[in-house]
Amino acid sequence: MSEKKFMIQNFEQVEASNLLPRVREMFEGGYRLGQACATKQADGNIFVLYSFDKDHVLYNLKVNVPSNLELQSITDDYWPAFIYENEMHDLFGITFKHLALDYQGKFFKVSTPTPWNPQN
Amino acid sequence: MGKRTIIPFGPQHPVLPEPVHLDLVMEDEKVVDVIPSIGYIHRGLEKLVEKKEYTEMVYVIERICGICSFGHGWGASAVIEGALGIEAPARAQYLRTIWHELSRVHSHLLWLGLLADGFGFDSLFMHCWRIREHVLDLFEKTTGGRVIFSVCKVGGVRKDIDAMTLKEIVDTLNSLKPEIEEVAEVFRKDASCRNRMVGVGTLSYDDAVALGAVGPVARGSGVVQDMRLTGAGVYDELGFEPIIETAGDCQARTEVRIREVFQSIELIEKAVAMIPDGPIEVPAKGNVENEFIMRMEQPRGEAFYYAKGAGSKFLERMRVRTPTNQNIPALVHMLKGCDLADVPILVLTIDPCISCTER
Questions:
Q1: Angle ∠(B235,B60,B90) on CA atoms, nearest 5
Q2: Band of pLDDT at residue A118, cut at 50, 70 and 90
């Protein structure tokens, strides 16, 4: 089982200030963006997980979201990330600066605004 | 530059069984830009981790979609198994693979029917769905369900399939092959199909990679990407190789799915011949402490599952990213430059599942 590719679980903690350079390195290394999602932890803090794929192996970057809930958008390098960043904005209240396609909170129609936002 | 007009497409449209909206920016009959909108039916299923234990979350996740429900159930079970550090027994892995490939057969036949319906070929649509009905019968016979099966559980599967029924599955699928071949030839050769698909909505290899396309959309553009190569299930033992087409147009995406129907039948036949005896589940005990990522190749492409435990029966996070999420940017790119009349067919060729996307 250990030889199987899905068993390779690469997680790297990245500082928010170092996110864009690391994402640029992934882009230049030929990685495909697999997904991005946010997680609210028991202590109320949020981290964002960016998953990149190359040759069927995932590499994941984890970034703790600052208390002002602002992160830089990665859409400069990975334009398709607009889907995930708008989703995180609408569900978690995270603001992504310089987002290439910003739906301004109208991506998801949710009855409770930003339901996962720890500041709710 | 001619005068630009915005034409709203959806959220209610004859080719869309589920709501997605596209703002089509037109110059005469040509689409020059597209702005997609989803979110009409967001269900917040992921948030149920706060109320459902990890074993119950499998039921929730498989209800994300009525077409690829088995794959979602498998993905949810497998990602929790990974976080718990347990592995389903070999027989369970074979059974999961058989049900998953049956799901692919029924999903692709359903999609072929929808495509035929999309360009007004209703008799072809009915034949595709008539054939698919036999696959649903096999689901009913082996799981008790035709849409939601609930046979996957953390640690294995709930039901076994006896040797006689396994043989019946193979016999049924083999008896369907000539009929599938017959409808496949219509998609491949009939002018009313080819005229709508050949050279339409071409996605180059480079664009497919850059836009992160998945599933038959990526493989139709020559990208060798299939999560069945990651080692889940028993695909390694079955000698699985992904099906690739290179033209990148609607016909290529259709051809990938047609060939995958026959490939799935072959995989099921091999799995039935090789399935070992033995237990079908291992106990899933304890709390989830770790995080784990699992990816499954659903009929529409790569689905992503992330589970993070916090030392209790409740997960801190269960994330599901479905294939349509990932194919929307590719769709936007493909639509630019196409004729308005081609938009419905182009939308269909990513096999959109908004129910999956909204979760």
A1: 25
A2: confident
ipTM, two decimals: 0.91
Q: What is the DSSP letter of B342?
A: G
The torsion angles phi and psi of B199, rounded to 5 degrees, stand at 75, 5
Strand segments, DSSP code E, in chain B are 4-9, 21-27, 30-37, 152-153, 156-157, 291-298, 301-309, 315-321
A1, pLDDT greater than 50:
no
Query: Cβ of A83 and B329 within 8 Å?
Result: yes
- Lowest mean pLDDT segment, chosen from A45-54, B7-16, B258-267, B340-349: B7-16
pTM: 0.92
CA A110 to chain centroid: 20
Domain A5-41+48-97, architecture per CATH: 2-Layer Sandwich (3.30)
Domain B48-343 carries which CATH code? 1.10.645.10
What is the 3-class SS of B130-172, one letter each residue?
HHHHHHHHHHHHHHCCCCCCCCEECCEECCCCCHHHHHHHHHH
Q: What are phi and psi of A46, to 5 degrees?
A: -115, 140
Chain A: which residues have CB within 8 Å of chain B? Answer: 1, 3-7, 9, 11, 32-35, 37, 39-42, 49, 51, 56, 58, 60, 78-80, 82-84, 90, 101, 103, 106-110, 115-116
List residues of B whose CB lies inside 8 A of any A CB. 35, 37-40, 42, 44, 47, 82, 87, 209, 211-212, 225, 227, 229-232, 236, 291-295, 302, 304, 306, 308, 310, 316-317, 319, 321, 325-326, 328-329
Mean pLDDT of chain A: 90
Span B105-119, average pLDDT: 94
**Sequence-ordered alpha helix ranges (H) in B190-300:** 191-197, 205-210, 215-219, 250-274
**Which of A3, A108, A116 to mutate: most B Cβ within 10 Å?**
A108
pLDDT tens digits along B90-104: 999 999 999 999 999
CATH 1.10.645.10 positions along chain B are 48-343
